[in-house]
Each structure stands twice: as C-alpha cells, then as structure tokens.
Amino acid sequence: MQDNVNEWQSQQERTSGNDGQEHPQVPSSLLSNILHHLELSPEQTPSEPSLDDLLLKLRSTAWQDRTLALHALEKLKYPVSIDLLSPFLQDKDATVRAATVHALSMISKQVPLHWLIEAFHDPNWHVREVAVFALAKQGARVPREIFMAALHDKDGSVREAASFVLQQNSVDHNSSGLYGQLREETPMHNELYDPTRLNGQSNGHSPENTPPAEWSGVFMEYSGNSAHPHTVNEQVQAYAAGQYTPHNATSYENSPDEYAEMMPSRHEKLTSYRLRRKSHKGWWAITIVLVAFLLLGVGRVSSVIVPQINISIGQKDAKNVIVPVPITDHSFPMKTDYSIIMQKTLSSALHLTSQQLLAKLKERGSLNVIAVDQGVSTSVLAKAELNAFNTILQNAVSTGQISSTYADQLMNQLQKNSDLREKIAITLLTAAPTP
Amino acid sequence: MGPSDKQLPDLVELLATNLDRYFPQLVLSTQQRLYAFALRQSGSPQDAEDIVQETFIRAYHALKMYPAERIRFMNVQPWLYKITLHIFYRQSSNDSRIQYTPLDISEESVHCEIEDNEDERPEKVLEDKEDRRNLEALISCLPEHYRISVSCYYFAELSYREIAELLQQPIGTVKSNVHRGTQLLRKTADKTRL
User: Fold this and answer.
1) Mutate to test the interface with A, among B168, B174, B176, B177 (most CBs of A within 10 A)
2) Minimal Cβ distance to A12: which of B28, B69, B73
3) Residues A361, A429: contact at Cβ < 8 Å?
4) Which of A70, A373, A414, B194 suits B145 as a labelling partner, its CA being 20 to 30 A distant?
C-alpha cells in the first residue's frame, strides 16, 4: 500500500504545478495522521481483535475508536448480540450512530425495525442514508413506501440512497422503468403511488413479499405519543413533509445538521391521493369486518356478531328491532332509534354534526382519534358514550326488550371495557340512517 | 477542472473494489482542494487541517458502510465538500476561535450595488486579482452565505446545482449569492487596491 501511496504522491506533485493555480500548502503530516487514525498505516498491522478489546474500545471517549470498534464487531467470526450495540444508536456522534445501524444490519437480518426506523428519522443525513441501506437489507419486512418517502428527503444523499435501493429492488424483480420515475424529485405521478404496485402485486410478486403484520406493530409502538402520526401512510407523509420527530428523539450534541436545519429545505408533501383514496374503498365492509374481528379478542367478550344492519337500514320499517348484537353470553339490543341516540350524543360531545361525525369516522376509523382531532379529551368521549348507552339501555328496559338486570350487566361491561364501548358505539353509529 | 478530477472516476472504481488499499489515493487526489476550501471558510491553517483530517476520517467510515455499487456511482468531490462543510459548520458553532471581520453588506453599502456591467463577469473579476492569496483572504471575510457559494463555485468548481444540493438551497438563491458575493469581492478588492 505504501508503494501505491508514494506513486500517487509523486504523481500529484507532478500535476500540481500544471493547473495554473497556486494552492495553499497542505500540511505534509495530513495523510499520515489520517491513516493513523484509521489504523491503515503500514506499521499498524491488522489483526483480529478480541471481543474484550472491542468492548473496551466501544467505551472510548473518541468517536473514531467507537466507530472502528463497531466496524470490527460486524466482522467477528462469532455472533454478537445486537443488544450490545443498541445503546450506540443514541450515541452523540452521528458517525457512530451510522456505524451502529450498519453493524446491526450486517450482524442480523432480523433487526428490530423500530431501531432502524428511528435511525431513518435521525437529524443527521448520513445516519438516515445508512438507515435506508440497512432497511433495504431487511428484505420484505420493509415496505417500499418507506424508501419512496426517502426520495423526498431534504438531503440529496438520502434521496440517492433511496433511489439506489429502489433501483436494486426493481432490478431484482425485473421491473425496470420504475427507476426513471423514482428519480424525479418533484411531484410524482399518481400511478407511482398505486399501493398495489408498491406492494409489488402488479409485478407478480409472491404474497410472501408483502410486509408482514409486524409493520403495524412497529408503527404502533413508534407512535405511542398520540400527537404523532399513527399509520404507515401517515408517517410516510409526515416524514416527507419533514414534520416527523420521533417521540424519544435525542438531542444530539454538536449535530452537523443543526445548521442544515436553519437552511431552507425542500420539504415536499407526498401526493398520497391514491393512497388515501384507496383507504376509503369498501370502508363499510372493512369496518364491519374489523369490528367483528377486534371484538372477538376483547376481555371476557369472546364473540360479537355484527347485526345484519344492511337488512334494516334504509327500509321503511327501519324502526323495527334489528338483530341484536350478542356480547359473550348476552346480546346488545339494536334498533335504529338507538343508533340515532348514539349519533346525536356523540356528535354533540365531539362538536360535530351527525353528518360530519360519520364522515370523520369514515376517514379516521376511530372515535378516540376523532376526539383528539377535535380537542376533546377521551374521558369526555367515554362519558358521552356511557350516557348514550345508558339512555339506550333504559329505553330497551322500558320497552321490555331486555330486563333491568341484564341492562345492568351490559352497562357494567361497557363501563369496564373501553374497546368494547368504542366498537359497539361505532357499530351503532354506522347502523344509523344517513342524516 | 484539475488533473485530479479526471482521475476521480477511475479512483472511485478502485475504492469500490478495495477501500483500504485505495483510500490514501483519494486523500492525495482531493486534499489540496479540500484544504484550500476549509482554509477559505475558517481562515486558520490549523482549523483547516483539523477540518480536512476529520473530513477524510468520516468519509472513510461512510464509504465503509456503502455498498460497492453505490460507491461506483458516487460523485465523490461534491460529497467530500459536503462533509467538510458540515464539519466546518459544527466547529464554527462551537469554536470561538473562528472569527471573521465581516464586510459591510448593509443596504447603503456601495459593495452591494448590483451593476449590469460586462466587466463584472466572475472570470474577469478573478483575472483582475494580482494575488490569489489576497483574494482568498478577502473571500474569508465575506459573509458566510456568500463565502461558501463563491468558494464552491469558483474554487471548488461545483455547478450551481451541486452547490444548491450541498447547501440545500434553491438554485436561484445560490446564483444570487454567487453574484452578490462576487460583487462584494470586486468592490472590496478595488477599494483595497486604491
């Protein structure tokens, strides 16, 4: 290597006099200092360090040492626990954080995705860039949307990394032609956001390439703060718009991007029209199926059968009793009148008209989320729900539909179980005739 | 474009195949320009050396983490300037040693008058300078946003687009800063000569 260096050095000296510019003299020790720090000097013979040596080096106060140790750890012949590295994801030095992300991706194909996602939102461009490569190494666990969001990163290197990953992905799946479109930084065509295409379904991808349910777990965990976006798509949107900040984001000392944050950036909102529109398709069917599935696992409630709402709603005899909703061994009385009671009570509590409430429910899918949107506390929402249920159950008792004991039992369950409360409230709301 | 620029594509290919072996050649090929760039920003040889040293160390670690294919398609020179600039920003925010005597850029200042004069072409401005070192000293006194744009455009020979990417600014802003910075430089140089 030294011969190479000498040859290049003399070549540089020969050419330096020909560019017609007088440059300031570079200190002669610069190269040797750099090589020494990188342990590339000829006198520094490479040898495989022991784990103990590396652990010691990881505790060094010099970021260079910690980085070198991380690079060395990923090359060890025996496996290293990823938990050993995870603390360095929060290192104050960006290069160390990036090296940690890289080492994790080299050591394991099953890195907890929330670690990588957090790195993906790091304030430093290089950490984000390495996170893109690390996420790509996780294969089908990571949806392509995340890389497409990175195409709109404010930093060019991150965008290039995302382009590179998507290009590789396209090559791997024989879907050339996508790359050219992905290079565009400015508004993308809607077809690019066709979710079926993003998931590779239109390219004949096998179902195993579809991101597993683990993703929703990652994002749910990541969005523990209710002020933050909840869904994958919302996070992708927020990220693209530069609004996303992890709830536990560390304030890194001496972050080189501190200045970058002060500079004008090109935050571009992703045009997710297709994504959002798709989520509205078949909403009724999805809600009904979801309610059925979710209620199956709630506490003591082992089964809920969604009423055959579609039979009664909109018919002239809509006030007739609808098939009751069984709750465990019991049933919740259903009637169009009860749906209207729920609709009026909740729309009033949430400061919305009945129409607005139904529209919001279609859009947001959760009463709690709507409450947050409206600036109404969840306790106020819960109180309103219970009031509505109380009224409904009293009504049901007074009309002889159910006994008072049974009503008390239902009320008791509803008071204890907020999930159940929400699901039945949504069922009642969606069963109500359109105002 | 200097000779080292012509060698860089080949060197990038070599770096992609064996980083440890060819990294010293990257240092030798680019250290001169990076050092001059850092010196213009910091105004201190010691600070410039520190900045360039850290730039190469961080660059090595970054290259270590890139897939080989990614390295092959890299535009190394702007990328190195980017790292240098970030290190400079960080150091200048933490280090009170880096001090500037900013030129007057108030509205009333004659330095900021924009002239539609053919003679204000940057090449012409540079040709008029007797001593490049004096010019570099003047550049280091420019306000930061002008200094970086002028330095990147004339000395680092980056395109407007590359500078815009580097500084995360619109191209129009970069062009304006280069233009105004050049104006300011020209006026100051004339004044100094008088």
Assistant:
1) B168
2) B28
3) yes
4) B194
For residue B130, pLDDT over 60 is answered with no
Cβ contacts of residue A287 below 8 Å, gap of 6+?
A: A365, A426, A430
Per-residue pLDDT, A334: 78
Residue indicated by tokens 């390295």: B71
Rounded CA gap, A362 and A376, in Å? 18
User: Is B130 at the interface with chain A, CB within 8 A?
Assistant: no
Closest CB from B87, B165, B169 relative to A256? B87
Where does the pLDDT of residue A167 fall: very low under 50, low under 70, confident under 90, or very high at 90 and above?
Answer: confident
Contact assignment for A260 to B86 by CB distance below 8 Å: yes
Rounded CA-CA distance A198/A179 in Å is 13
Does residue B6 sit at the A interface (CB-CB below 8 Å)? no
Q: Which residue has the higher pLDDT, A409 or A47?
A: A409
| Cross-chain residue pair A1–B24, CB shorter than 8 Å | yes
Band of pLDDT at residue A127, cut at 50, 70 and 90: very high
Task: Tell me how far apart the alpha carbons of residues B139 and A38 are, in angstroms, rounded to a whole number.
Answer: 33
Residue A74 has pLDDT above 90, yes or no: no
What is residue B100's predicted lDDT score, i.e. its pLDDT? 45
Whether the complex's predicted ipTM is more than 0.85 is answered with no
**Record: contact A24-B136, CB cut-off 8 A:** yes
Interval A4-27: pLDDT, tens: 555 555 554 444 444 444 567 888
Q: Is the dihedral of CA B79, A153, A220, A169 positive or negative?
A: negative
Highest mean pLDDT among A242-246, B20-24, B112-116: B20-24
Distance CA B72, CA A177 (A): 21
Q: What string of DSSP letters covers B139-185?
A: HTTS-HHHHHHHIIIIIS---HHHHHHHHT--HHHHHHHHHHHHHHH
Tokens encoding A318 = 């809509």
The answer, yes or no, to whether residue A51 has pLDDT greater than 60, is yes
Report chain A's C-alpha Rg in angstroms: 29
| Angle CA A340–A344–A345, to nearest 5 | 115
Element (H, E) at A332: strand A330-335
Nearest Cα of chain A lies from the Cα of B69 at a distance, in angstroms, of: 9
- Spatial separation of the C-alpha atoms in residues A181 and A148, rounded to whole Å: 11
Q: How many angstroms separate the CA atoms of B83 and B52, rounded?
A: 9
A34 neighbourhood in chain B, CB within 8 Å? 27, 53, 56-57, 60
Cα A282–chain centre separation: 23
